[in-house]
């Protein structure tokens, strides 16, 4: 039995959630995956996975085994990186993730400049508005917008981002400038990535206390870009991050309202796993990207 192969099979099966998905990911026949897992369980003398027609669940022994195997695989990867020179020469594949529009606007230009400067590094840029898991999704570094949960990750702050309410001048002319967020309940609004109703948070300028306003939208969309486009077409007011609408604000095709009620800006970080010495490809990208992001975000303030 190839124990390293068996470890990889267990991790892939747990990550993918089924034997069928693991077989597809590993390009192995399903019976082979099942047999190798059974051989490993027989070798260990314990059950690792409870298998049903709907899902796989780890036993207590299986959870301990998977946790240990993850550490072993990380150490093997570090040894391989050292052997290939990743700790002495910036080379290899770098996997990055960022929110879709933020990634297109800010990270992609940085990545293309970075690739020109470091010809031995290749980058895989995963743009997703879902926060990918650095370990499970095999990501080296991520852009995170918002407060970070307590974790073992290392975060480098590169700036901040505010949210704002904006609308087209034509819509403001037709409905008037709202003086208080509560007036939004009676005005046409656009929300994105939310249910039929949404709560927008604001901060009372006198007490500095936050409060919510329930929004029943005229239009609900699934992306900020679509919300901004609808606002430009005079459909309603929308609430987005500043970078979503910065060009339109500068051009005057959208105007900000209720500025005095804005909540505090959220932080923007570059995040990576805490795994001892960083491969040189990650260290040089962190230095390269952090300075450029700080400059770009400072221009939005």
Q: Any overview of this molecule?
A:
By secondary structure, the protein is of the alpha/beta class. Helices cover 42% and strands 24% of the residues. The protein is built from nine helices and 14 strands. The strands form four sheets. The chain has a five-stranded mixed beta sheet with strand order 4-3-5-14-6, covered by helices on one side. Strand 9 and strand 10 form a beta hairpin. The model has no long low-confidence stretch (mean pLDDT 88).
Q: What labels describe this entry?
A:
301 residues, alpha/beta, Arc Repressor Mutant, subunit A, D-Maltodextrin-Binding Protein, domain 2, five-stranded mixed sheet, 9 helices
**Approximate helicity band:** 40-55%
Q: What's the total helix number? A: 9
| CATH architecture call of the largest domain | 3-Layer(aba) Sandwich
Q: Give a short account of the largest sheet.
A: 5 strands, mixed
Spans of 5+ residues with little confidence (pLDDT < 50)?
A: none
Distance between the termini: 59 Å
What is the rounded Rg?
Answer: 24 Å
Side-by-side strand order of the widest sheet: 4-3-5-14-6
H/E element sequence: HHHEEHEHEEEEHEEEEHEHEEH
CATH level 1 name of the largest domain: Alpha Beta
Mean of pLDDT? 88
CATH topology of the largest domain: D-Maltodextrin-Binding Protein, domain 2
Shape: elongated
